[in-house]
């Protein structure tokens, strides 16, 4: 038995969103190009989500907040959204301070081991 793909919509893996890496202190002059890139990634993948890796963005400030707000606005206008990967805790606090809420990738909470790490139990430990 054979099967040929139909001429319909392309097959898109919606579980793997596109990643946009933001490195270095990004200023207002770079925002337009990055917004175009977000719109292009949303159109190319069809996933409706772009992950912005902000780990290398540098020290958090209002410039970073402005850039992220512009990227989110561009994504919303294109029918998608952005998710932050590896945000600095200070950036997360600054975004909350100015009233912007961004979806972030799952990070271990304080005191919670990262995924894939299990705590060892000794044979002589009493049950809790």
Automatic annotation (TrEMBL):
Q: Where is this region: Disordered?
A: 105-128
Please list the residue ranges annotated as the MlaB-like STAS domain.
20-100
Annotated InterPro entries: MlaB-like_STAS (IPR058548), STAS_dom_sf (IPR036513)
> What superkingdom does the record give?
Bacteria
Q: Which Gene3D superfamilies match?
A: STAS domain (3.30.750.24)
What is the protein named? STAS domain-containing protein
């Amino acid at each position: 038995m054979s099967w040929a793909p139909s001429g319909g919509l392309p097959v898109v893996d919606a579980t793997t969103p596109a990643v946009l890496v933001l490195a270095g202190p990004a200023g207002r002059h770079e925002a337009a190009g990055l917004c175009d890139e977000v719109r292009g990634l949303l159109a190319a993948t069809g996933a409706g989500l772009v992950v912005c890796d902000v780990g290398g963005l540098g020290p958090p400030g209002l410039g970073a907040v402005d850039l992220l707000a512009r990227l989110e606005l561009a994504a919303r206008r294109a029918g998608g959204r952005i998710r932050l990967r590896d945000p600095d805790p200070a950036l997360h606090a600054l975004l909350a301070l100015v009233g912007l809420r961004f979806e972030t990738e799952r990070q271990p909470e304080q005191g919670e081991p990262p995924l894939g790490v299990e705590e060892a139990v000794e044979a002589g430990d009493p049950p809790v």
